[in-house]
């Protein structure tokens, strides 16, 4: 079952309805609580039972039979030994049957019969018979060979390995989604702070405009413009809070916090800030990492192996069923139970036979149609593998390009923000001299806010681009020190 060895998390509550959450803590919550991960963790255990079921086809099987009966039968001739033949019989049998990898089936059987009769011609009033036999059946064409007979076990093991890769992929996707959602929340909170700063600036501007109006520098129209600016900024606050709540719910859904009554309505406060460490992305190296680490690529290659095994079985099924069967048996028959087994093991009474059995379906239509279907399924799987390779190639190239683009945007947005700040400062000085209007100052404030948001977005887009690149390379869990062992998750501190 699913188990998790992780660090102990403590939430530092600043207020009863708010708690601080780091990026690592958010990932930890997802690993522990996310339903996609918990669902996927069952697949390897289910596959283990399928492997065991296939392996068990080579287990020895013991058979036993016990039966008894009595009969009274009229006869129409004195040669029967009596006018009414009375007989009673008790049979007991035990055997062991085992199938081997080459397709060989070996059966050993021991049967005993105790029979009593009133027939005058019977040698014994009560006879005891025993038979010990060994039968070997060896397929010569259809069903012959370890490759064919072990195929179902290998297929089950392949499915099991695929389930492990799929579990790893699920964990990687959830971790990536968690980090993306976290950075989206960071941006939503930053955007709200910028809107709050804009509102404070608009209120300060309104107070300043009122002072300038009293000094006959500005008019009543200027005051109305400043008041309209305050109202507009208050509306932006409402929109920003709505966007932040939506971003919170996305993160809470991934971490299963929405299903927790104590956490559902609490406000999240992110504590991890974006740190810009510019990387040199080498596309060729990233591609090598992707084909080495991507779980779905390994799973697809295993699926191709499974299709090859199915093709081998289907090819063998086109042969006629021709089996060699050989039996050797020892017999014993006496009037007492103990003497019967002495007669049996003396090897004086035996029988053996060897023969061939042949089955020829008309036209082998079923076998040939199955073989053609398996050929087409393998061809289809090969094309899907090529398609996946192209997809991985595209994703790596796209994510690498996004990282490089985000790096350049950080530099340009930083320069733009600095210029907008200078422009606002100059426009505020012009307003003091009566050479500008409140509306123009409001516009310059909005331009600075846009520049600040663009810079903040460029930093967070860079963080998200790094996550996408690591997902594309299949290295996200490794860089986060998260180890997958079958369906267990191990995280290092």
Structure overview:
The chain is α+β, with helices and mostly antiparallel strands and 493 residues long. The protein has a domain of 304 residues: Up-down Bundle (Outer membrane efflux proteins (OEP)), CATH 1.20.1600.10. The chain has twelve helices and eleven strands. The strands form three sheets. It has a six-stranded antiparallel beta sheet. Strands 1-11-10 form a three-stranded mixed beta sheet. Strand 5 and strand 6 form a beta hairpin. The longest helix has 68 residues. The radius of gyration is 41 Å and the shape is elongated. The protein starts with a strand and ends with a strand.
Write the layout of secondary structure elements.
Layout: E1 3-5, E2 18-21, H1 23-33, H2 35-40, H3 42-55, E3 61-74, E4 84-99, E5 105-117, E6 126-139, H4 146-149, H5 151-214, H6 220-254, E7 267-270, H7 283-293, H8 295-316, E8 321-334, H9 337-345, E9 350-359, H10 365-432, H11 438-473, H12 476-479, E10 482-485, E11 488-491
Parallel strand pairs: 1-11, 2-7
Antiparallel strand pairs: 3-4, 4-5, 5-6, 6-8, 8-9, 10-11
Helix pairs in contact: 1-5, 3-5, 5-6, 5-8, 5-11, 7-10, 8-10, 10-11
List keywords for this structure.
493 residues; Outer membrane efflux proteins (OEP); alpha+beta
């Amino acid at each position: 079952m699913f188990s998790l060895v992780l660090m102990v998390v403590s939430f530092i509550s600043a207020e009863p309805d708010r708690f601080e959450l780091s990026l690592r803590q958010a990932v930890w919550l997802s690993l522990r609580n996310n339903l996609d991960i918990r669902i996927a963790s069952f697949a390897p255990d289910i596959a283990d039972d399928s492997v065991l079921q296939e392996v068990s086809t080579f287990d020895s099987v013991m058979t036993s039979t016990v039966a008894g009966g009595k009969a009274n039968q009229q006869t129409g001739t004195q040669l029967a030994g009596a006018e009414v033949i009375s007989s009673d019989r008790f049979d007991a049998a035990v055997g062991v049957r085992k199938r081997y990898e080459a397709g060989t089936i070996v059966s050993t059987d021991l049967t005993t019969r105790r029979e009593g009769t009133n027939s005058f011609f019977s040698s014994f009033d009560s006879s005891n018979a025993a038979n010990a036999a060994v039968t070997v059946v060896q397929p010569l064409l259809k069903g012959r060979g370890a490759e064919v007979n072990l195929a179902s076990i290998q297929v089950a093991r392949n499915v099991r390995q695929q389930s492990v890769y799929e579990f790893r992929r699920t964990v990687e996707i959830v971790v990536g989604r968690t980090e993306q959602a976290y950075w989206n929340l960071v941006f939503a909170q930053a955007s709200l702070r910028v809107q709050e700063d804009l509102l404070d600036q608009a209120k300060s501007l309104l107070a300043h405009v009122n002072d300038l109006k009293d000094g006959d520098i500005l008019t009543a129209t200027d005051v109305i413009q400043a008041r309209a600016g305050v109202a507009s900024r208050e509306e932006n606050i409402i929109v920003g809070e709505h966007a932040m709540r939506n971003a919170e719910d996305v993160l809470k859904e991934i971490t299963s916090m929405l299903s927790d009554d104590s956490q559902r309505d609490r406000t999240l406060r992110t504590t991890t800030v974006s740190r810009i460490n510019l990387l040199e992305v080498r596309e060729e190296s990233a591609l090598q990492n992707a084909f080495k680490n991507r779980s779905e690529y390994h799973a697809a290659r295993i699926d191709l192996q499974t299709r090859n095994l199915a093709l081998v079985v289907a090819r063998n099924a086109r042969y006629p069923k021709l089996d060699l069967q050989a039996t050797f048996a020892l017999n014993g028959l006496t009037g007492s139970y103990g003497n019967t087994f002495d007669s049996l093991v003396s090897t004086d009474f035996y029988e053996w036979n060897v023969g061939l059995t042949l089955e020829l379906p008309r036209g082998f239509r079923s076998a040939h149609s199955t073989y053609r279907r398996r050929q087409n399924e393998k061809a289809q799987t090969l094309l899907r593998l090529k398609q996946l390779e192209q997809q991985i190639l595209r994703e790596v190239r796209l994510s690498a390009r996004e990282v490089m683009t985000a790096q350049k945007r950080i530099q340009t947005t930083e320069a733009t923000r600095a210029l907008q700040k200078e422009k606002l400062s100059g426009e505020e000085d012009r307003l003091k001299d009566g050479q500008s209007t409140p509306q123009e100052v409001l516009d310059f404030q909005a331009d600075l806010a846009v520049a600040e948001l663009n810079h903040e977005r460029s930093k967070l887009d860079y963080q998200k681009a790094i996550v996408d690149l690591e997902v594309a390379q299949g290295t996200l869990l490794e860089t986060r020190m998260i180890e997958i062992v079958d369906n267990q998750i191990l995280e290092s501190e």
